[in-house]
Batch of 3 targets.
Target 1
Amino acid sequence: MRSALTMLGMVVGVGAVIAMVAVGQGATERVQSQIESLGSNLIVVQPGWNNTGGVRNGFGNSVTLTRDDADAIAAQLPAVAHVAASVRGNAQIVYGGNNWFTRIEGVTRDYFTVRNYDLNRGVAFVDADDQQARKVALLGQTVVDQLFGGADPVGMMIRINNVPFTVVGTLKPKGQSPSGEDQDDTILVPLTTAKRKLLGRSWANAQSVRNVYVQALSAEATPLAEQQIGDLLRERHKLRPEQANDFQVRNLTSGFEAQQESTAVMSLLLASIASVSLFVGGVGIMNIMLVSVTERTKEIGLRQAVGAKTRHILSQFLVEAMTLSVLGGLLGIGLGIVASRVISRVAGWQTLVSLSAIVGAFLFSAFVGIFFGYYPARKAANLDPIDALRYE
């Protein structure tokens, strides 16, 4: 019973470390998946603000970006891999007796590459669809579920704002964006189709777009791409040096990478706090081993009298301490895995148990056993055999 209670500190310590690391790594993995769902090396260019009657409207409320700007970025900037332009609106979708209010996005062909959209069924748009403003649509999974249930929508006819569209494909689910937006609650149509037949064209500029999505050649090239985009757009918009930008260039992945770093720091902090219980367990082992040395003083003296050397006594007590810590570590591994699954199910948090955390926690528990078991073992090995035999 005493040995079991002694091991309890190691069991709780190892289990806590594994569970906390699993929570932290789960959070890191979730942030990483959200970054990947947005698109790799992603830069978003939005229209700037405008001034109406002395009132400044926010970014995105003017018509300063055009499709020609997007084409120029793709053609002239060496740090850019792909560029896609888009417009956005909302509409009521009808299929048979079902209807759903969702987001409509008019996009160019490279939108799928830049935003990491994959097809679940069907085919994607081609240049001819955009040039001829064909009434074709790709549905997100949320829209498919609401309108079609379990049926295959490819080839079916839907009505968007009473305009008939043919469903040519569906998109693989992406889940929520980091801002909480359902990325699957959307319908993608060709950009020209959206402007001519659904969302309308701006009287100020028929070629205006809401967003330009830019994928840099690599993560290292992203800052250079941002600089090149800003310089090119200022030149195209004929802005004087003293004038502010009439557009906004945002590197989305950099903000979320900072969030990922914060999550990693929090994971390390959680693991450090949990590891304190390992030291507490180690102190418990040392206390019990010291009591054991006192209780077995005569036994130690007898062993020494019949020829046991210092190293024999030392190794005996070290093995006992290590046995307690190692068994506690093994039980703690099981506790940590179970605790991680319970946390995931009860709290709804994503957890990820890693082999490195299991091995690290186990080795650390073995080290704690040796570290805190050495002093009692050394004390036992250095007992004088005559005094030990006389001990009552």
Note: The first strand starts at residue 42 and ends at 47.
Target 2
Amino acid sequence: MDQELKVLDLYTKTDARKIASFNNSVKSEYTVSTNVESFEADFEWLELMEGTVMYIDNILRNPNRFIINEEEVVNVEKARRVTVESIKHLARNTSMIQKIEKNGDVKPSKILNINKDENYNTYENRVIYTLIKNMQMFISMKKRDLITKSFVKDSKKSEYHGTSRVGSELVDINVSMASKSNTSSEYGRNNDLTVEERIDKLELQVSDLTRTDVFKLLDKANVARVTPPIKKTNLILKNTNFQYAMKLWNYLQAYIDNGNKTTKTSNTIKENVTVKNMFDDVFLLNYLIVNSLGDNAKAAKQDNNKELVETLTNNMITKIVEINSDLPLEELQKVIGDKIAVIRNKKEATIEEIQQKLNVKIQSTISKIVSFEFRS
């Protein structure tokens, strides 16, 4: 703050004509370039998978299935069981009756055998099978290039060249500035587990899913994986477990295009009037600082200080007279004289202190006056 006041004080004490001459002669050009690179460590996939594993497990424990009836005519001794369908088939095919006993019992030579088999190769189960395979590949891909830190790299560079003339004095400046900042943050823990530990735990959970009977049957049958778009069957649309599974499915499909969280932005400013004026002001302040040094500068400073004191004194006296125009001249002189006498008695008093105290007095008097008029 003190440095700022010194710079402003230097500007205030400089001859206004010199400043105007400098500003009117300034010719300058500048360039400001900014580059920002950021990377966001994205673990939305991890949180989504962690929250979906239990729903996939529910599906595999209560899988969708259909019954396959395999019909085969076999010798009666090979028949596993006789069903209503077997009797109906025999009645329609009497040639397979070997003989009829006296008591009415029928002894067939052959009979229809029906084997009922549960099949898990349904569309919905293949969707879950494919989803688990996709999860395994995705986790493996993420572990190969695991980055747990987010970062932002911000760099700025400015170049400024300016020239000006004050009387016979030619002023030239070249300024170059560069700044860089790197910030990073580690992805937070969850339940006291690091990211690496959470991924390892997730891998074990997905591995458990591959050990279920349904998954093993489909994997052994080498069923074809399901490709998008997903058919909107009643089970997929209405079952809560499938709704969570489809949310993860859609996320993984979209991640192929949207997974990259790295962003880079660059910007160059060359023709902003406000920025140019600020650079020119800095040029002026640099000139005033350098110009304030040396014997010539000291002499000029003394002249300027003298002129400044006279100007300030005239302005303050004018204000005092205008505001207190109804006071007798003797009383007005006494008020000003007493204040100056008090201040002069302080050895450490400066022009700035005098100005400050007089300004306080003036402002206090102004606040008490509603209106005034000059006396002729």
Note: Residues 369-376 have pLDDT under 50 and may be disordered.
Target 3
Amino acid sequence: MMTAPTTINAHKILEAGRKAVVQESEALAHLAASLDDKFTSAVELLSQQNSRVIVSGIGKSGHIARKIAATFASVGQPAFFVHPAEANHGDLGMITPEDRLLLLSHSGETVELKPMLDYSRRFHIPAVAITAKENSNLASIADITLCYPTVPEACPMGLAPTTSTTMMLALGDALAIAMLHTRSFSSTDFRTFHPGGNLGKQLSRVRDFMHTDDRLPIVPMGTLMQECLIRMSYFGFGCVAIIDTDGKMLGVITDGDLRRHMHAGLLNDTVEAVMSPTPTMISADILMAEALAIMQDKSITSLFISSNNKPIGILHIHDCLRAGII
């Protein structure tokens, strides 16, 4: 049974927490320094084209294995977790000869993993092991073994998996990031696998939210300001693009330009006399988050989207709200 909690000492609690974080960060530094050619070989083996990575482990290693499988999938490497106990009762059929195994065990002697290892040897399925014991049974059977340094657990009794599972997780992340580089994974690819939530929002493209065609506020050069004001009011973006006879953008008129050029004869001026000749234009392919950053940097509320210097769309700061960026 657990004993009753003692009187809380805030200083000792902070000291214990900080010590654990420092101890684990030092272990990660040792891990980074220990990576060698085996890591490169593991990345090459696990990222073979048309192969899936089957990740497995039990206990705390199993929880880490689930996260590693999810991370692999998020960077475009098909992967899923198979519980070793379930594998022993039929789920071995989920594993094909084209797959790759990634097996996690701190001791390297986890008996529940043995049937998966035997299965991999029988059907010549490559296996990568992550363990702390280089001379373990798992390490001796796996094709490639990634050993993390043997360092004390952050647990003061040295019992609860803490530092060891942190290093396991870090190794999984390192493999995932290395795979990402080998396949030239882009932010567009990332959005494909993260269409929902904040990640999906942050990776939205301008082309998905810009206004085009009959919602695009443009007037040709030579237009009188009285007509220009009507167009500005109609569209409600607080600006209008000025184009030449070829449809290329010459400048932009904003509410600010109107205030700066306010005089009695303004309505009889042509748009060239009022426009700003160096408008900020962006590509339809940039991220919505980038477009918002440009608006904030330039203290503006709208951006014209161009192709070959011709306006093809407009984006308002309210569209960033609609996209969930702000």
Note: The chain has a mean pLDDT of 89.
